[in-house]
């Protein structure tokens, strides 16, 4: 079951990254692809896997913080976030 969930998360993330030109969908897809390994790491339940899971959570937090900073910088410059989410 964890393998199927990981496969689904990776596939959904890859679909969002490759098919959507919007920045929000791109970041969501990257987040899904990053977290695709989490069910497999939790299912194995070894100390090394749990340490890798914590490292994965750290990188997910780092990605979210960078995305929020980028959105804030764009908002300061343009005063409108709707332009960021429109089709290219």
Overall CATH architecture = Orthogonal Bundle
The CA-CA distance between the termini, in Å, is 38 Å
Write down the CATH class.
Mainly Alpha
**Remind me, CATH topology?**
Helix Hairpins
Q: What is the count of DSSP helices, taking H or I runs of 4+ residues?
A: 4
Could you characterize what this model shows?
The protein is an all-alpha fold. The protein has a single domain, classed as Helix Hairpins (Orthogonal Bundle). It is built from four helices and no strands. The radius of gyration is 16 Å and the shape is elongated.
Give a brief description.
With 88 residues, the protein is mainly alpha-helical. It has helices at residues 2-19, 23-34, 38-44, 47-78.
SSE layout and pairings?
Elements: H1 2-19, H2 23-34, H3 38-44, H4 47-78
Helix pairs in contact: 1-2, 1-3, 3-4
What attributes characterize this protein structure?
4 helices, Helix Hairpins, 88 residues, 78% helix, mainly alpha
């Amino acid at each position: 079951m964890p393998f199927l969930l990981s496969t689904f998360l990776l596939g959904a993330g890859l679909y969002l990254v490759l098919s959507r030109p919007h920045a929000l969908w791109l970041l969501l897809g990257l987040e899904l692809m990053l977290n695709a390994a989490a069910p497999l790491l939790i299912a194995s339940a070894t100390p090394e896997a749990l340490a890798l899971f914590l490292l994965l959570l750290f990188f997910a937090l780092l990605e979210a913080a960078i995305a929020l900073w980028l959105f804030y910088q764009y908002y300061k410059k343009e005063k409108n976030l709707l332009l960021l989410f429109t089709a290219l």
